[in-house]
Amino acid sequence: MDLSAEQQGDVTVVSIVGSVDALTAGEVMSYFERQVSEGATRLVADLRAVDYVSSAGLRSFLATLKAARQAGGDLRLAGAQDNVHKVLAMAGFTSILKTYPNVETAVNSFA
After folding, report:
1. pTM score, two decimals?
2. Contact 16, 7 (CB under 8 A)
């Protein structure tokens, strides 16, 4: 699991590498919580390098979404691989979270 953040204008892009599962979801949630507590409320999760997401991973995204929205922002998901996008869709997350084919489109959606 590798996490990194990059500013693109007033949007914070968090790149996630690896699986977001029961072993790593807490780390992902803590990382996003830190971003929000530091004032980054317009968030994009770059999922291009995420090969697997479990229910624990989905919960970490939902908690981040809630925190960002309570702070006046939002969380958008970008670049999910087909297998990850299927999990998001089956769990109903594509109706809760906005998903985009790539980071650029997700960042521009905040404009």
Report:
1. 0.96
2. no
Q: What is the pairing mode between strands 42-53 and 11-20? A: parallel
User: How does strand 42-53 pair with strand 74-78?
Assistant: parallel
pLDDT in tens, 41-93: 999 999 999 999 999 999 999 999 999 999 999 999 999 999 999 999 999 99
SS3 state of residue 36: helix
Cβ atoms 47, 16 nearer than 8 A: yes
Cα gap 17→28, rounded to integer Å: 11
Question: For the chain, what is the largest distance between any 2 Cα atoms, rounded to a whole number of angstroms?
Answer: 35
What are the pLDDT digits (tens) for 84-105?
999 999 999 999 999 999 999 9
Please give the Cα distance from 56 to 72 (Å, whole number): 25
DSSP string, 59-103: HHHHHHHHHHHHTT-EEEEE---HHHHHHHHHTTGGGTSEEESSH
Residues listed for the chain: 111
